[in-house]
Amino acid sequence: MSTNQRRPVFVQKYGGSSVSDAEKIRRIAQKICQRARTGVGLVVTVSAMGDSTDELIALANDVTGPDVAPSLREMDTLLSTGELVSSTLMAMAIHSLGQDAVSLSGQQAGIRTDAMHGSARIASIDSERLSRELDAGRVVIVAGFQGLDDSGDVTTLGRGASDTTAVALAAALGAERCEIYTDVDGIYTTDPRIVPSARKLREIGYEEMLEMASLGAKMNPRSIELAAVYGVPVLVASAFDDVPGTLIHGGEPTMELRRAVTGIAIDKNVAKITVRGVEDRPGVAGGLLQPLADAGISVDVIVQNTSDDGTTDFTFTVSEADSRRALEAVRKQQAVKFRDVTSGGGLAKVSIVGTGMQNGPGYAATMFNALASANVNIDMITTSEIRITCIVKSESVPAAANALHGAFELDRIE
Amino acid sequence: MSTNQRRPVFVQKYGGSSVSDAEKIRRIAQKICQRARTGVGLVVTVSAMGDSTDELIALANDVTGPDVAPSLREMDTLLSTGELVSSTLMAMAIHSLGQDAVSLSGQQAGIRTDAMHGSARIASIDSERLSRELDAGRVVIVAGFQGLDDSGDVTTLGRGASDTTAVALAAALGAERCEIYTDVDGIYTTDPRIVPSARKLREIGYEEMLEMASLGAKMNPRSIELAAVYGVPVLVASAFDDVPGTLIHGGEPTMELRRAVTGIAIDKNVAKITVRGVEDRPGVAGGLLQPLADAGISVDVIVQNTSDDGTTDFTFTVSEADSRRALEAVRKQQAVKFRDVTSGGGLAKVSIVGTGMQNGPGYAATMFNALASANVNIDMITTSEIRITCIVKSESVPAAANALHGAFELDRIE
Fold first, then answer.
1. CA–CA gap between residue B12 and residue B141 (Å, rounded)
2. Contact A96/B65, CB-based, under 8 Å?
3. Which of A108, A201, B64, B88 could link A96 by a cystine bridge, Cβ 3.0 to 4.6 Å?
4. C-alpha–C-alpha distance, residues B246 and B291, integer Å
5. Is residue A322 within 8 Å of residue A235, measured between CB atoms?
6. Residue A218's closest CA among A334, A47, A380?
């Protein structure tokens, strides 16, 4: 092989539950070494060990006390240590099996981001060092979830963003495939813990996966977006069991993908913020939501109803974790007048997803009827081209999911 | 105050036992804020929390197994996370008290080192960002113990080297003083846990402190060297108790410093390597020790005796932690022929230290007589201008130290 002819490169990612103790790290290291011996170039991204990220967050809250939110800049450097620990340990474990390997921090892997601490976006990847280490025959372990901004400060990409690191590395390196190894063995028609008859999908399209991203595999939606943009095939599979996973790709849909409804997505930690008596004029929605964007809070579903008295009610959902900060942001903004604002948690999103829905009528009616039969009350409704979402109470999720899984015949093996 | 006229700067260092949990970090943060309110510029170095460095080392050993030593490069990045955690938490705790602060990694603080992983030496400090953060009115928290080498890899300076970081920062910033806050309240005439009548010194010279560095305060010897070279006064004091500490400086000796013997230094984790039947020719000592230097192993006491048959016996001491690696390094080297090599642990160094000894006779005789009266067998002897050291069995340390403390009247308050 000439030095100019690069080996095919694969990028793997192992989640926190796959590297939660020394024994598991050694098992994953063996898998990595077996794969490396096939002659391919391997770049491996790891998440922080087990619950270590949560433990660091708890520590941060302990030192700042209940009244002050920890600085996001400091939090990013703090949380980035979790992935430094797991990536260096993985490199050591691989060494001990006789395979050359090197760990790189996000910074060393050339991952540059914007400066939005806590939810930074990857701006570019300078793969010079990555390529050099690969050319030297090393397995390269990259600390997931982190990068460096233009001030030289460490940033993190948000919870679950090691997936994003893996897909971005695969895109930058022109990798054959990105392989996400996790504690579930693929993407299911819906969460098997809620719907016992849920089935594993052999493949799924990027768009559908984007809508389903909160399913069992809990893949980070941004990583799917990135994979779709760069056409990176993504395999989701079990870290420890050698069974077929699910391939996420943008190729021709097979029979399975041609089903109208591919799956039921469930997202449980939803809170809504309702702003009542908002002055009804152009620019109101933007004025209310800009402070949330500035604070890095993602707004999901947005619903607005016009009422009779020249004012309107404006409701949107955020993750429950952001609920308090979102409420404060709306209260503090000066751009838009309103009568009152309230927040409520304990909600969930239940969605039916499928590209086949684009041209077919009646899916919404089937969905609402199935929920009504299961005695599930719908709080809000929102739709995209390939998805219909209902906001329901969290406790209604099992009834809703099972009703929909049956109504759309997802348990039927084709 | 004009922007050109800099505030006086103080560098503080807090050891791992002072920041071992959230409550202690909050208490130290309060102390730091009080000090910051006096208007001085503050740079604070912190060690890793409590036993976290030992826990990381144990994890590394767990993933590599008993037969392979973890890669020193990976170990350095792994261990550097301990100080990143404590420094970011300290910055957060200071924020929560209303004081602006920023944490910097060794790299961000401009600390460049050589590439000797595990025991790197600081090559230079680019204090541009440090000065900028100080000028912005921030307390700057610097992760101790770490730097960056020319390849862009993280290095660590060796156990206990957060002291070195602090002194080096003080030198680079032209600080008024470096303050080492720890779990003891100063430098004692000897270890008070071994000799109950040990007294705290109000001050001590750099040279004496260098010899005594393994005493109660366990200051890193390299940090004392650095302080002496740059003339940085170093205060060693209690992190939590507001009692006078010990000032280490190079000024005129006061009455206390003029005592012939200032203290008894004790270093317990000593192993000896004895190489027997070494060919007796020039270059032998260098040939035996070069492989240890290459492996980053510090050799302490060296004793060589010529025997009758044209060969010699060569004995040197290393820390017990390095004993196995040192033995292997001697065995593997090809430069020098010898008959056999053995190692033995469980030894300790007991030294009398004092600048006054330079011109006075009889200190050695007094020392050896005192040890003999206490029934302590001397294994090896070595001396410097201001120190006499005896290698004894570890279990003899209490008897030896108490006998010497009495013989040199160190318990007598002047």
1. 9
2. yes
3. B64
4. 39
5. no
6. A47
Q: Are residues A170 and A298 in the same domain?
A: no
pLDDT in 10s for each residue of chain B, 414 residues: 344 467 999 999 999 999 999 999 999 999 999 999 999 999 999 999 999 999 999 999 999 988 888 999 999 999 999 999 999 999 999 999 999 999 999 999 999 999 999 989 999 999 999 999 999 999 999 999 999 999 999 999 987 789 999 999 999 999 999 999 988 889 999 888 899 999 999 999 898 888 887 655 677 888 888 999 999 999 999 998 889 999 999 876 555 555 678 889 898 889 999 998 888 777 778 888 888 888 888 888 888 776 667 788 888 999 898 999 999 999 988 888 899 999 999 999 999 988 777 666 678 888 899 999 999 998 888 877 788 889 999 999 999 999 999 998 888 755
Among B77, B93, B129, whose Cβ lies nearest the Cβ of A64? B93
Q: Does B304 touch chain A (CB under 8 A)?
A: no
**Structure tokens given for A208:** 């559908």
In a domain, B196, yes or no: no
User: Testing the interface with B: which of A21, A74, A75, A145 to mutate, by most B Cβ within 10 A?
Assistant: A74
Reading the block at residue A157, the tokens are: 């990409």
Kindly report the pTM of this predicted structure. Answer: 0.79
Element (H, E) at B381: strand B380-384
Q: What is the CATH number of the domain that holds A389?
A: 3.30.2130.10
Instruction: Give the residue carrying structure tokens 């040197």.
Output: B316
Specify the amino acid at residue B134. L
Instruction: Residue A133: give the domain boundaries.
Output: 9-183
Measure the CA–CA gap between B377 and B390, rounded to whole angstroms.
9
Query: What is the spatial order of strands in the sheet that A154-156 belongs to?
Result: A122-125, A111-113, A146-148, A154-156
Which residues in chain B are contacts of A105 at CB distance < 8 A?
A: 77, 154
B169 and B314 fall within a common domain: no
ipTM confidence: 0.76
Closest CA to A155 of A191, A118, A129, A184: A118
